[in-house]
Amino acid sequence: MKFVVFSEAIDQPMTLKQIPRSQYMDAPVCKDPLNEKSRKSFFKMLRRKNHAPTATAAVSSQKSFSAAAWLSFDVEVSGSISLLLTFEDAYGEQHVVVDKTDARGTKSVMLSGNAVLDIQGDLESLKIQCLGIAPAIRCWVDDVYVQKKDIGAIKTA
């Protein structure tokens, strides 16, 4: 999955990956996909129309994620690099710092950590971004990882 990304400016986040909606939406899941009866009832449930209007703009919720990124550079980096989760909700685009490191004199770095997002309304989009890489430096993304976590597991860890 190694690919090259370029930074526009050192103070602008560089998007490493747009996270698929299936990773963070609370969608129904088929409990037994091998059982034909279970699959049919699951598809019937998905086709059912919900006639009750929902007002999600005022609803506040928290979601937690574990994120990691492995980055390589063509030259030694001189400065700190931050890993961000950027999400869009009713308040617009917001950033949460997952990890930050002083990467002076290195040509590769791994950033990782957990983040709890305070979301107003629906979670519209989720991206993993990096901040602090100079535009002249070529960056290779060796791997990117984002996984939704149980909020209780994050707080007790």
Write the layout of secondary structure elements.
Elements: E1 3-5, E2 14-18, H1 36-47, E3 60-77, E4 80-89, E5 92-102, E6 106-120, E7 125-131, E8 139-149, H2 151-156
Antiparallel strand pairs: 1-8, 2-7, 3-6, 3-8, 4-5, 4-7
What does this 3D model show about the protein?
- With 157 residues, this protein is mainly beta.
- The chain has a single domain, classed as Jelly Rolls (Sandwich), CATH 2.60.120.
- The protein contains two helices and eight strands; from the N terminus they run E-E-H-E-E-E-E-E-E-H.
- The strands form two sheets. The chain has a four-stranded antiparallel β-sheet.
- A hairpin with a 2-residue loop joins strand 4 and strand 5 (92-102).
- The model has no long low-confidence stretch (mean pLDDT 80).
Brief write-up:
By secondary structure, the chain is mostly beta strands.
Order of helices and strands: EEHEEEEEEH
- The dominant shape is elongated
- Structural Rg: 19 Å
Instruction: Tell me the distance between the termini.
Output: 30 Å
Main-sheet strand order equals: 1-8-3-6
Low-pLDDT runs of 5+ residues are: none
Query: What would you say the CATH architecture is?
Result: Sandwich
Q: Approximately what portion of the residues adopt beta-strand conformation?
A: over 45%
Main sheet makeup: 4 strands, antiparallel
Share of helical residues: 10-25%
